[in-house]
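Input (structure):
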């Protein structure tokens, strides 16, 4: 038995395949998994800050390690294409404060705007190791 498709189906099928390929390409374009480092200004000069990130579908988890203290867990992590956001709750002298991180990933560069905690917002650029 031979299956015959009407001619009008082929352009539609090609369009669906192209859209599916494009969607998959966009959803996997941001490879966030791994270790990211940045040099940030601290009270005693520049210090290295390390993010260890893992994405599962659109949820991001991981830790942030600064020059002092234990690594802090990332919460509320989300990724949508190349846009990422997450929170880090820190504790200092029995006080807890939350820092919000929002930004974009492009190749091996992660540009984040940090808000919350002391001072105003600031930009930090992490590089993938």
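Output (sequence):
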């Amino acid at each position: 038995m031979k299956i015959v498709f009407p001619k009008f189906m082929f352009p539609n099928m090609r369009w669906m395949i192209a859209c599916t390929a494009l969607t998959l390409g966009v959803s996997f374009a941001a490879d966030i998994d791994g270790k990211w480092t940045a040099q940030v200004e601290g009270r005693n000069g520049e210090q290295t800050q390390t993010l260890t990130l893992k994405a599962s579908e659109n949820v991001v988890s991981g830790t942030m390690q600064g020059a002092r203290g234990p690594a802090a867990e990332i919460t509320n992590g989300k990724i949508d294409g190349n846009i990422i956001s997450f929170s880090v709750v820190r504790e200092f002298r029995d006080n807890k404060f939350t820092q919000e991180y929002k930004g974009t990933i492009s190749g091996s560069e992660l540009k984040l705007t940090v808000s919350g905690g002391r001072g105003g917002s600031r930009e930090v650029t992490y590089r993938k190791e």
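Notes: The helical segments are 9-27. The chain has a mean pLDDT of 82.
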